[in-house]
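Budget justification, computational time. The allocation requested in the original proposal was used primarily to generate structure tokens for proteins on the priority list. As evidence of use, we reproduce two of the resulting records. The first is shown immediately below.
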Amino acid sequence: MYLPHRFEEQLSILENDLSCQAVYGWAEEWNQDFTQAIRKLGVESEVLSTDIFEELLLGRKGHFHTPTVLIRTSAFDTAGGFDENLKLHQDTELWLRMTFHGSWVSSGTQTLAYIRKHGQNNSRNRSTQSTQQLWKRVLFYFENKAVSPRQYNLMMLRLATAIYQPPAKKEWLALFPFLIQYPRYFWVLIKKSIFGNNSKHSHTES
């Protein structure tokens, strides 16, 4: 449910900053009967626009929530829209592509929308297979993009942990069996590490 001020401030940001491709804010999750607020959902507002892409890969500063995102139509079209090969996580995959290519700005910590939590929209219902498919699609898209070796390694790690789900403190150990099963991603990382963005396997995106 959108709050009355949902678009006002975000539209103002887009109108005054032509370099900004999208604006994001915060939502508040409520129980099914709207009798109790559960938590606030969003990306921490102090994250710099230049750091958002990597922070989304790390997942440590929160996530965008679609009801609080306002994007330019031109930016959405340039990104290619949602990946219809994915049954779930289409928004997560799109936000990664869009934050890589353009500037995103926070509209602050004010709540813009309420989200009612119930059994049918609980993200915990997502399957391991759907999470694996998400990160496979992400790796496929960024294989020939000018991401840093660290960023590509983070993508491999996210897929590896989706497959092997090791204890959090030992998550990097998941890369070992993962690299045996998916050596292609390892060799792409090696190429990025050696040749950087000048490799014939990579190209710079504006």
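The second record produced under the same allocation is shown here.
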Amino acid sequence: MVLGAVGGVPVVERDVEPVEVLLAAGGNFADELLRLQNETPLLLRAEGESWMRLHPLAREVLAGRLKQLPPEELRSLSRKASAWYAERELFEEAAEQSFLAGDTEQAIALVERSSRLMTVQGRSNALLSWYERLSPSEMRERPTFWSPAAWALAMSDRHAESQALIDLILAQPGLPVDQRFEAALIGVTTASFADRFDIAEDRKS
């Protein structure tokens, strides 16, 4: 999330990286960050790390100030934070900020770029949180999100929804063999989690 702004630059939950922020902000912003790190307990950085971390009390103060901002200014900060994250290939965080800014299409496009990684990492809840933000018609327009969402649904109690996405994947004309194989594998997983071992065995054969 955006926690506030210093010098017109959003302070995001992942905190700040001095060199990168200097490029974004210009001026002596990086010097100011280093001064705060050296002279106050507000910014902390472990030896050998480039990330600075905000003291919890500083986070609380910034979060309180954030609630007082006009909506348009808050959206502007979220857009800046999204761009900041995206430049560092932190697409999931960038997507969240775009969504908070009201840029839903941009948010979904960004989360699609990290959905495979989220699947590999077993982060089903994170995938489902994005799945649930999409209407059925929006979901049908996002084929690259079908497999990750189907995996997440397969490993939950939402097996019928997983199967619906599998059917969408398999209905695509000219579906490559690897994608067809993955859809079948998701189907086996769905059947196994649903205790439908008869279906799982049929799909294996």
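A brief technical remark on that second record: Residues 139 and 146 are 8 Å apart (CA to CA).
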